[in-house]
Amino acid sequence: MRCRSTADYPAAISTSRLEDRLKKANKHTARQEFQMKELEAKLAYALNDFRSVDELLQEARKGLQAYKANYALKTQVPSITQELDNSMATLAELAESLPNIRSQVSDIRKVYDSGRQQARSLVADLTWLNTEFYERWRTTIFTSRSPVSWRWKTVLRIIFVITFIIFSCLAYVTLSGAYRAHRHRLVWGEKLMS
Prior knowledge:
Elements: H1 15-130, H2 133-142, H3 150-183
Helix pairs in contact: 2-3
């Protein structure tokens, strides 16, 4: 290690210069403190002004809300009341006319249903009349689904039974005569049966 000589150290600073610098720094610090206190006072004053302006704005807002509420009470509430009265009158009229309308609708429904029933009946009658005679005759005599009165069905069935009996008797007589002619060996053609 090497030893340092006095030449290695800087020259000693004079104390007067140091004191001057300290005084200047103190003055500068005092000036800045004064400016900060001034700024603080201005900020406090401005904050006070802000609070008073804010209070004024709050009062103005409350006043506007009260004005709007009064305006609504004076203008909108009467019109709403009038509309409500008109609606109530209309509802009362409708309540009076509703039973009449219901009865009219019921009458219309009855007429519609009877018309539909009559149309179905007419279609069934036309279908019956468009069927062939043989089909109508067979349906009337042998089934119960024909659209004729029970008297007409009874008359036709009695006529059928009488006709059937007559034809059965005729068939019996004819067959028995043919059998007898065949048994007696009667000749057909030249000699007639007696």
